[in-house]
Amino acid sequence: MNFIGENLLYRKFDNGLKAYVLPKKNFNKVYAVYSTKYGSIDNEFVVPTTGERLKVPEGIAHFLEHKMFEMPYGNVFDKYAELGTSSNAYTNYTNTTYLFSTTSAFEESMRLLLEFVETPYFTKESVEKEKGIITQELRMYEDDPEWQVMLNLLKALYHRHPVRDDIGGTVESIQNIDVDTLYKCYETFYHPSNMVIFVAGAVDADKVFDIIEERENKRGKLSQGEIKRIYPEEPDTVNKPRIDVKLSVSRPLFLMGFKDNDVGYDGIELLQKEIITNILLEIIFGKSSLAYEKLYEEGLIDDRFSFGYEGQKGYGFCTIGGETKDPEKLKDMLVTSIDEAKEGGLKEEDFERVRKKYLGDYIQGFNSLEFIANSFVSYYHRNVNIFDYPEVLKRITFEEAERRLREFFDFDRMAVSTVYPK
């Protein structure tokens, strides 16, 4: 039991796989995820079984996610459709996650999830076909202004770190993917020791563990140590102060970002930094802030204006922006708002108000199985337990927030990305 009265059950299997179950009897559905700590930034690593150092093409984690839904008997999505179960997957910078949601066919859906995620099936023909499909997807994203404004911001902030690369890779890089490399990546990152299962909803935990154990015992895999991942040395500076492009948009899109150099750790410390940074962004730019009011009144932002912080062990950055009629004026006013916060200091009552809001949002989140499951795995891969969030939120001091404000919002580490109409 924990702060919000949820009962999380846990089992570790002999091959290193960990499984967590959160029974929620007042729900009529089940949401399950099977996730590997393997994302788009993991392009260089040491193969644990052979000691071979391998550099693979950009976009291979995403490519592999697509391929996993193909089995010798056909497409897994069709099987899930027959069960009346909805299924999906996603790849981000640091993990790949497979999921399903069902109201009636949990056991069959769970067995299918284990079966297809644990059965790599790649043929030369299907890999070549997939290259065509992903090439189309990448070309589509090249014309997507919201994707490009974000991608260009990361290219401006980062010199070499692979977070600057498109999660899907490039049209050129995916041509270099072959069956042999896919199997090497699969064997390295889809090892049970590098994966986690999380199930929430109307389930019996023992039943879930029994289904997993039955399957895992047959695999004959041994537990494995941590994978050695290799990332390039990233300078403290930003790569470029700005990147501007022209695309088919009716109004400009603008994004400002700050690069975080306080990196190299995960766990509770990372969670604390993430919460503090998000609280600061909310105080300065949230809907009840003076800055938001001014920007809105001047017609520089609309309801789609947003901000957020992404923090991982090896990198961190924040984004602030949206659609605007005047990117330069918006930039100047955002900079002024940060300057004023740094010079005039923060108000302790604002800090407490936002802290309460975040606690409320967290509690509210537990009404959604999707929120619980996806947040759980996102935090899990950063060595954070989602149930530690309220305690860490409560412990943060006003002085820590003031210190972070001065250190993080350094204009020498700021970059902007703009998409202008053609």
Automatic annotation (TrEMBL):
SUPFAM superfamilies: LuxS/MPP-like metallohydrolase. This is Putative zinc protease AlbF. Keywords: Hydrolase, Protease. It holds the Pfam family Peptidase_M16. One of its GO terms (biological process) is proteolysis. The keyword Protease applies. The keyword Aminoacyl-tRNA synthetase does not apply. Its EC number is 3.4.24.-. It is an enzyme of class 3 (hydrolase). The lineage of its organism: Bacteria, Bacillati, Bacillota, Clostridia, Thermosediminibacterales. Residues 58-169 form the Peptidase M16 N-terminal domain.
